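Weekly sync, protein design subgroup
Attendees: M.S., D.O., the rotation student, P.L. (late)

Item 1: inverse folding check
M.S. brought a backbone from last month's batch and wanted to see whether the design step gives back something sensible before we order anything. D.O. pointed out we never logged the input encoding, so this time it goes straight into the notes. Structure tokens as presented (794 positions):
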């Protein structure tokens, strides 16, 4: 044990790790002395019941998810309502019988016959056979261990078993059984890479459980085969209990392991050791939900993909608990509902989600969907479980994965539930630092995310250095993207890039990102994003975020949504000295991008489109700005996107670069769709402010961003504050929105003045009157008849 690390461990962790070391020594001796595995509890169960298969049918199957006990109802639903699902199941099974599998972005990969479960089918690398604890898969990987792990999760086996369940064709059952038994032969207990990770074992056990229950009607799954499979299954479950990721990976690894232990304890209560599985599973699931899920319902590692993992694990557990009258505290059900809130809001109109943070390309159960590119099946199941019309609306329809979890009764309940769009168009998840805005809930609407969060709980291993990054989806297409993950192991340069600030829609100063990476899942330095201010008004919204940067600088970004037409991005970099500033915007790989720029003025006009989906991006800098379009660059790496683990594609990037002294500011406009909305830079009386106008239908909107405190003179307006938005009609001021302001006057007439900074002021004006709303703790509204020529002093 490393003495340096030992000094930072708690007493409980030291005791836990010493116990594991003794256990490993014992297990190593057992392996190399050839001592056979025995399971007296399983033997006693078989002797008592007389038939293991009868035991499964009469006990565990009735405790499992309802679809497996009502086969005919499921078959009837497939045939009557979802014949395409049935066709797909048969096609998948035929491919799997030919030993062809899909792993991440690689489809139809041929495997050897018989399958070599230690061979990476993509690279051909054969993993050496050694004691499970003797691998270093993160720090000294020969190839990316994710591939061999994904293959050995056996998530394709439930799809083979599903095909048998629906068709009764024994060939599919025989193939599934043969693959499991070849795995057992090649993977003696705790020997080989497939015993290294308890989470991978847990997901494999979950796949085996579904495979067994779907194959119970098969004559091919006889007593002998079932006993062989169960002996290995229970040995693997014991290994999870023996080596949980309590301190090594106390994240979704621990949640997934405890979920499997709980599920096994519910299914097999007749095994005496199931009580230990249950005790550990229930306690850990409860404790980890408190530790790992934030109070706003967002999974604490701040990865949208891992949020789906955590939600799915808890969904499977609580649904099984409900079916078996096993009680979990009500607060856990409430928290799971909040976790679905986040899925509902982060899900875009096409069902996809931005890949914020890491994604590993897998899922809890791959009986239909194979990843969390979309988690509409979770929304579908959540809609039934919590009777929520808003979740049904976002699910978009009934999902096959939900049918297997819920059974035919769940299908009926879903159809009886009336879909209803969520009431909110914007949602703030304060603890996570995520802010989500959308123009509506229809298929062509615009969806924007703004990330003001940090790297996440623990080491931040699955977080990216992406504070203040934006994504934008509109017209049914992803336009501004989070480039994703690409890979974890065996390619450190690509791993560093995809988790870096330079891979996100953020600002890089002097070539340095917000955080300095260490190894694959750690950071040398961390910078925490934070939200300073949130203003939500019916027609205008503002989120104010901040992150500290290297070299003594700080980046402040305010995202202002002028509903429903356009977004304003107000960036300010503060600090001292002269620096290189790079403002980066990453577009989807299929985007056609056109850039016009006036370097000396600091103006950039960028148009991005895919088919009918269009984004206009106009940028106005406080210094000269040089625009570049980058795509597929390798030295240095830039202009890449990964939409699925293990793959990468070139994508266009707008890089707007300036060299100058801090403070430096950029005022940008994001205008989605084909609307004739354009912006234009305007002059102010100082170089420490940026002003622009936006022509929007019959209105002319004026925006002023101040870089320092003081009076600004702009047209016939005088103002003092940080940011002002004015809406005019035929030259007459109709609306005003001011942030952190002290005064505003027009044509010599004062509208408001204050000795103290006011958080925000909103004003509606017409020919003879004005309504002023003061946005601070006082929150007063002032109404005035302008004919009295009085001004309002706050």
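Designed sequence read out in the meeting:
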């Amino acid at each position: 044990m490393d003495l340096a690390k030992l000094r930072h461990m708690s007493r409980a962790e030291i005791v836990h790790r010493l116990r594991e070391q003794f256990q490993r020594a014992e297990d190593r001796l057992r392996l190399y002395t050839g001592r056979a595995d025995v399971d007296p509890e399983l033997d006693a169960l078989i002797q008592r019941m007389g038939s293991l298969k009868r035991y499964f049918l009469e006990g565990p199957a009735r405790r499992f998810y309802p679809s497996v006990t009502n086969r005919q109802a499921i078959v009837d639903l497939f045939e009557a309502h979802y014949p395409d699902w049935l066709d797909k199941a048969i096609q998948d099974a035929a491919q799997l019988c030919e030993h062809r599998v899909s792993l991440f972005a690689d489809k139809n990969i041929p495997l050897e016959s018989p399958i070599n479960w230690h061979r990476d089918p993509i690279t051909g690398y054969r993993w050496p056979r050694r004691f499970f604890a003797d691998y270093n898969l993160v720090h000294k990987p020969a190839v990316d261990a994710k591939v061999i792990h994904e293959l050995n999760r056996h998530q394709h086996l439930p799809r083979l078993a599903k095909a048998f369940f629906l068709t009764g064709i024994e060939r599919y059952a025989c193939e599934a059984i043969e693959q499991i038994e070849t795995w057992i032969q090649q993977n003696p207990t705790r020997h080989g890479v497939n015993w290294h990770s308890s989470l991978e074992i847990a997901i494999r056990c979950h796949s085996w459980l579904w495979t067994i229950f779907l194959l119970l009607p098969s004559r091919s799954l006889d007593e002998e085969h079932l006993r062989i499979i169960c002996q290995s299954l229970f040995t693997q479950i014991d290994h999870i209990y023996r080596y949980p990721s309590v301190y090594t990976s106390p994240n979704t690894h621990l949640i997934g392991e405890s979920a499997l232990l709980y599920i096994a304890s519910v299914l097999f209560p007749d095994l005496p050791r199931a009580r230990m599985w249950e005790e550990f599973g229930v306690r850990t699931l409860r404790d980890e939900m408190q530790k790992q899920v934030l109070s706003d319902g967002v999974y604490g590692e701040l990865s949208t993909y891992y949020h789906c993992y955590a939600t799915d694990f808890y969904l499977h557990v609580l649904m099984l608990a409900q079916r078996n009258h096993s009680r979990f505290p009500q607060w856990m059900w409430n928290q799971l509902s909040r976790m679905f809130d986040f899925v509902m809001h982060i899900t875009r109109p096409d069902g996809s989600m931005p890949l914020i943070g890491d994604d590993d390309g897998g899922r809890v159960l791959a009986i239909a969907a194979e990843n969390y590119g979309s988690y509409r099946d979770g929304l579908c199941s959540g809609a039934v479980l919590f009777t929520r019309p808003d979740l049904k609306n976002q699910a978009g329809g009934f999902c096959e994965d939900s049918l297997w979890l819920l059974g035919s009764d769940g299908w009926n309940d879903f159809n009886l539930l009336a879909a209803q769009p969520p009431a909110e168009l914007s949602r703030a998840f304060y603890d996570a630092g995520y802010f989500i805005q959308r123009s509506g809930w229809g298929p062509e609407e615009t969806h924007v995310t703004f990330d003001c969060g940090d790297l996440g709980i623990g080491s931040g291993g699955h977080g990216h250095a992406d504070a203040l990054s934006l994504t934008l989806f509109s017209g049914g297409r992803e336009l501004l993207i989070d480039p994703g993950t690409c890979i974890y192991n065996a390619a450190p340069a690509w791993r560093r890039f995809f988790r870096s600030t330079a891979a996100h829609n953020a600002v890089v100063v002097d070539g340095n990102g917000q955080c300095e990476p260490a190894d694959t899942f750690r950071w040398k330095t961390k910078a925490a994003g934070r939200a300073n201010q949130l203003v939500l008004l019916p027609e205008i919204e503002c989120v104010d975020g901040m992150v500290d940067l290297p070299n003594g600088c700080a980046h402040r970004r305010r995202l202002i949504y002028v509903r429903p037409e356009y977004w304003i991005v107000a960036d300010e970099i503060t600090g001292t000295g002269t620096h290189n500033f790079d403002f980066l915007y990453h577009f989807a790989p299929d985007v056609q991008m056109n850039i016009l720029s006036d370097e000396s003025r600091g103006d950039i006009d960028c148009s991005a489109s895919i088919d009918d989906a269009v984004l206009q991006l106009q940028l106005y800098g406080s210094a000269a700005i040089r625009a570049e379009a980058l795509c597929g660059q390798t030295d240095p790496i830039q202009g890449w996107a990964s939409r699925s683990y293990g793959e990468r594609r070139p994508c266009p990037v707008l890089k707007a670069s300036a060299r100058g002294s801090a403070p430096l500011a950029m005022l940008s406009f994001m205008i989605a769709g084909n609307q004739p909305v354009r912006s234009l830079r305007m002059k102010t009386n100082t170089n420490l402010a940026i002003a622009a106008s936006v022509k929007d239908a019959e209105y002319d909107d004026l925006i002023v961003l101040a870089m320092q405190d003081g009076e600004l003179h702009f047209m016939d307006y005088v103002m003092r504050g940080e940011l002002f938005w004015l809406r005019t009609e035929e030259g007459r001021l109709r609306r005003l929105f001011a942030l952190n302001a002290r005064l505003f006057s027009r044509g010599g007439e004062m509208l408001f003045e204050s000795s103290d900074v006011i958080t925000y002021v909103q004003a509606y004006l017409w020919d003879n009157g004005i309504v002023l709303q003061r946005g601070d703790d006082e929150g007063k509204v002032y109404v005035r008849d302008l004919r009295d020529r009085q001004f309002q002093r706050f």
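Discussion: Residues 787-791 have pLDDT under 50 and may be disordered. Residues 679-794 form one domain.
Action: P.L. to compare against the previous round before Friday.
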